[in-house]
Every structure is written in structure tokens, then in C-alpha cells.
Amino acid sequence: MDSLPIRRALVSVTDKSGLVPLCEALAQQGVEIVSTGGTRKKLLDAGLGITSVSEVTGFPEILGGRVKTLHPLIHAGVLADKDSLEHMETLKEQAITPFDLICVNLYNFAEARQRNASLLELVEEIDIGGPTLLRAGAKNFHSVVVLPEPACYDEFLEEYRAGSFQIGLDFRLKMAARTFTMVSQYDAMIAEALQRMELDRGGQT
What we know:
This protein is α/β, with parallel strands linked by helices. The chain has 10 helices and 7 strands.
């Protein structure tokens, strides 16, 4: 797929800067926005109509928010190849609507580390659902555009408007590469921090 129309977006972010203008621009074009927790509240407070992830999955957010988007009704919509008749027929059979835009950024592990959070506090800043969504969207860049940080929003909106509200393959590939770089750096930071804490504890668990 060369040009990707944006009809449905999944938005779940820690850093909410620039979020409302981005989603307002999407909503103006009739894009359905699916969101979680604090992100959804921010957008509702801005007067936007938002679908909750729980409405899509039929399952509540549980374990203090550790499990929100880890569900087949979400990930099938992210990972489906829109050029595959088999994939699209499967979505139809399972009553799953595909996503076109994945706007996700990660828990602020770096900030927790800088404030010398305890080991248990640090663990809670290890994002699971976010990297999973980002990797899924980046893998499926032929069918999805992924925005991993607020610094991408202006460039996306320029591309969106210039492309008659569609996103070209070159931009999607660029965002996929940026996403994998960011996720790998995030994982490396976590690994280094935990290894350092292990050393500080003398190898005790």
C-alpha cells in the first residue's frame, strides 16, 4: 500500500505535549480515536469524542494499568496486512476493525532513574504494552503509520495535509526506523539500570 488513508487511530501516551492539536486534526477528518486511561481523559477534557480500549476489547484495564492494550482485538487491528486478502477476510470474520495510526510513547523510565527511584518503583516504569504496540506498528509499516514521540507530530501533520489526508510509504518507513531505534535504546537503558542496581546490591536478589 503506497498511500494510507487514516480512518482509525490508537493513541496512548505518557508525554501528552502536542497531543490535543494532533487529535483535533484527526477528528476534523472523521478519524475514530481509540485511547486508554489518562490519555483518554486528556482528550475528553478537550472536548473530543474518544472510544476507550475497553469498549473495543470488552475487557477492563486491570492490574493497575499493567494490562490495557494486550488483547487480540487490538493487536490484530495493528498487525493486519491491508494488502492481504486473507488478513482482511480474517478481520471481517472476527469483527475486528484495523488501525491506521499508532501514536504511542513510553513510560518515563529515564526520569525515574534520575530521581533514584527504588527497585520496585523503577520496575513500574518499565513499559510493556507501549513497546509491544510500537514494534507491531513499525513492523507493519506497509499498512500502519506509527508516531513514537511528540517530536513527530508536526511532520506527520504536514505529510497528512500535503497528501490529501493520506500518508505515503516513505514517511511510514521513516517512522518505523525511528521507532525501532527508540525502542532499542529504551530497552538498553533498562538493562543497564537493572545491571547497575544488581551490582549495587552485591548480586543479591
